[in-house]
Amino acid sequence: MIRARIYPLIAAALLAGCAAVPHVEPQVAQVAPESVGLGGGVATIDPAWWTAFGDPQLDRLVTMGLAGNPSLDQALARVRAAEAQVDVEHAGLLPQVNGTAMVNRAHIGSKLLPPPIGGSTANLALGGASLGWDLDLFGRQHAAVRQAGASADAARLDAAAARLTVSVSIAQTYVGLARAERLIEVADGFVATRQRALGLTRSRIRNQLASKFDLDQAQTLLAVAQQARTQAVQQRDLLVHALAALVGRGADFYPQIAKPTLALDRAPVVPDLLPADLLGRRPDLLAGQARIEAAVQGRQVARKAFLPDINISALGGLAAIGLGNFFTGGAGSYAAGPALSVPIFEGGRLRADYKGATADLDGAVASYNDAVLTAVREAADAISNVRSTDQDVADESHILRGLRDTVGLDQVRTRTGLGSQLDAVDSGFRLLEAEQNLVGLQADALTRRIQLVAALGGGFDPHQPLAAASVSDTHS
């Protein structure tokens, strides 16, 4: 009768002891889209956005880069590791069966067993199997599985972000290569023009119609044009090397990179608004949401560690002294039953784990909020840069047309003796500089568009965007 009263009291005390979860709440709230000024529509970008440049070689290089870039290989390796961890945690929900077999040569003390066994030396044979099954009645292991799954989602989204980074890097480098090739063409044109002018000057000197000063100026203009070509060739070679590295190839690949065919003066159309779906487009932000979910589940794992754990265990096998007795019927034994494990005193470890898990959640939310603000700024900056660069191209084109007219007029005035050779030299320098500036600005216009595509999440369009975990979910 007394036992019937004491046992429930003991059980209640144990359960009360394991229910003392500390009152620690998250301190950081997740940023809301409307609070950062998102709105105005949805950005539409083709998943293979680089094809808008109309250059088959660029398409080929991006495809190669997405298949063999070392940085992307590292991201994919992390995905495989995260997926393996999901399997590890899921295995904790299943029964675990282990087998053992052992034979020892042992001396059996006479105080342990009576003679003739006691005091003898014999073979001790053990063999059997054990079963353990955590019933996970309070969902701790299920929370661990969800945590691992969210971490795997984050790793997959990190890989998507890496793919976007690789494609953007290749496209930007390729635009740089096109810029260098175009600068070589501009320099070649100026070299040819300056060589003709030098020949004409020498002819005029022979006919006593020009001076050594005129010859020096013609040679100076030719040297400047040749120097510009040398610099452009060096830049082209370096960019070829960079492209090969980005697609995971070495020096043997350099000759296979041909002159780009993309037109610098025809920039593709890209979104010019800050889309409302920005937070659901960028893989890095979706990875941040997945990490918040992983932190939420990690906090649940820490919380449920305060609750009892019930296991079903069983074992069976054979044990005998002497190998001849091992296979007899009397060598068999078995046991089975439930086991209750209740945390009573852990030296504060469980409370510390719970506080740490809550801090991890705050850290994941804060990191996500910072990424959101950075993403919004990058997208807004990219839109502004596209508009500004387009205006710069228009202005430089107008300047270039005026300089071409000025150079033509200076040449006529110099030949007729109505103008100064210095004026012709100065306008020639300015024309070469303007031609180079226009090429650079046209390349910048393409690069700014690539940066905008990256800021808007590229062509990343997940079929089922991951919803950001609500911090309030962790209060339960």
Low-confidence stretches: 418-423, 461-476
Total domain count: 2
Rg on CA atoms, Å: 38 Å
Structural class: alpha+beta
Please state the overall shape, judged from the principal axes of the Cα atoms. Answer: elongated
Order of helices and strands: HHHEEHHHEHEHH
**CATH class division of the largest domain:** Mainly Alpha
Helicity range of the residues? 55-70%
Continuous helix count: 9
End-to-end separation in angstroms reads: 39 Å
Number of strands: 4
CATH topology of the largest domain: Outer membrane efflux proteins (OEP)
Strand content: 5-15%
- Mean of the pLDDT scores? 81
By oligomeric state, this entry counts as single chain
- What is the CATH-assigned architecture of the largest domain? Up-down Bundle
For CATH, the homologous superfamily of the largest domain is named as Outer membrane efflux proteins (OEP)
Strand order of the largest sheet: 1-2-3-4
